[in-house]
From TrEMBL:
Record SMART domains: ENDO3c, FES
SUPFAM superfamilies: DNA-glycosylase, Nudix
Organism in which the protein naturally occurs: Thermoclostridium caenicola
Signal sequence bounds: none
Role of this protein: Adenine glycosylase active on G-A mispairs. MutY also corrects error-prone DNA synthesis past GO lesions which are due to the oxidatively damaged form of guanine: 7,8-dihydro-8-oxoguanine (8-oxo-dGTP).
Protein name: Adenine DNA glycosylase
Location of the HhH-GPD domain: 35-185
Superkingdom assignment: Bacteria
Protein EC: 3.2.2.31
GO MF annotation: an example: adenine/guanine mispair binding
Length: 345
DNA sequence: AACTCGGGGTT
DNA sequence: AACCCAGAGTT
């Protein structure tokens, strides 16, 4: 039995059940792969179920509004993925008559499909031998072959893709998924379970007892802390929310106005009804927000606040709790809303 | 090549 | 607290 035989036979007996493993429909595989980018399987599953129920086909997704797609995506993170998925559906309708191209170069032109996702769709949906190299696969390969390339660097990718192709045999979709499953269940980042690994006989790092020295990866800088006051402006039971700018962090999502300390010092003395809520902390990959929410009650337009209440309704407005529920509001602002609820507001 | 872009699970 | 996750796009 060679490497692929052992790997795939282990996979057939140990693979987890996932909704997208019951189909080879390219649209279904595409949606799952986009959601799974930098996101763990158990986190994705409920989002995937809801998404496929609402948008069962490329046509259905292409017809939808971006707002509705973002609303289903809220809480999943990396919201550009949702925008690209939506754009991609319209692109596939217009450029390919609603059918997925079976060609690698054509797939790569679809927004949001990069080297990994193209390989995943080609192999899983179409059975084409193509490398699908994600973080799991790089870790497995680096241990198998003592690969010293930094897995965080783009220039390392070709070496990993070559190794995959040298091992690939049988059904490419099964093989690629088996490699990822091995990385997720056995060849884990810390404390890998080498004694039960079906391919430990092929693993050079296991042979030398250096498994935990792989993969090689440069460290990340710590998130930078930013502090803001959050203006939670209440007018007769509704709350002021704004659509964030189209670029940058949490682009296009809805939230409360954030102001720095210096601006707060100008506004704070002029406010009558205010109430400081419990601090909210939220960590992004490279930033850490420490938020101090301030509940402010106003009757009419409050000129002392640095807010323009006369913007178009699609850019900002007073929202009832029910309306807030339907808007795409990222987790950090949901945390603020939670403090509001806890405070009995 | 480096930076940006979320949120949550694990250890 | 550190690390990682079925990565891609921009600069």
């Amino acid at each position: 039995m060679d490497f692929a035989d052992r790997l795939c036979s282990w996979f057939s007996e140990n693979m987890r059940d996932m909704p997208w493993r019951h189909t080879r429909d390219p649209y279904s595989i595409w949606v799952s792969e986009i959601m799974l980018q930098q996101t763990q399987v158990d986190t994705v599953i409920p989002y995937y179920e809801r998404f496929m129920k609402r948008f069962p086909s490329v046509e259905a997704l292409a017809r939808a509004s971006l707002e509705e797609v973002l609303a289903l995506w809220q809480g999943l993170g990396y919201y550009k993925r949702a925008e690209n998925l939506h754009r991609g559906a319209r692109y596939i309708m217009e450029q390919h008559g609603g059918h997925f191209p079976v060609d690698p170069a054509a797939l790569r032109k679809i927004p949001g499909i990069g080297a990994y996702t193209a390989g995943a769709v080609l192999s899983i949906a179409f059975g084409i031998p193509a490398p699908a190299v994600d973080g799991n696969v790089m870790r497995v390969l680096s241990r198998l072959f003592l690969m010293e390339q930094d897995v965080g660097q783009a220039k390392s990718r070709p070496a990993f893709e070559e190794k995959v192709m040298s091992l690939l045999k049988g059904d490419p979709g099964v093989f690629n998924q088996a490699m990822m499953e091995l990385g997720a269940l056995v060849c884990t980042p810390r404390k890998p379970d080498c004694p039960v690994c079906p391919v430990n006989g092929f693993c050079q790092a296991y042979k030398r007892n250096t498994v935990e020295q792989y993969p090689v990866k440069a460290g990340r800088p710590k998130p930078v802390t930013e502090r803001y006051r959050v203006l939670v402006i209440c007018r007769s039971g509704s709350y002021w929310m704004e659509k964030r700018p189209g670029e940058g962090l949490l682009a296009g999502l809805w939230g409360f106005p954030l102001i720095g300390e210096e601006q707060w010092r100008l506004v704070e003395p002029m406010l009558e009804k205010k109430r400081i809520l419990k601090r909210v902390c939220h960590v992004f990959t490279h930033r850490r927000w420490e938020l101090e929410p301030v509940l402010i009650e106003v009757s009419e337009s409050c000129g002392t606040l640095p807010i323009d209440f006369s913007v178009p309704a699609d850019l900002g407005g007073f929202q009832t709790p029910e309306q807030m529920q339907r808007l795409p509001v990222p987790t950090v602002f949901r945390k603020v809303i939670r403090q509001l609820d806890d405070a009995g507001a």
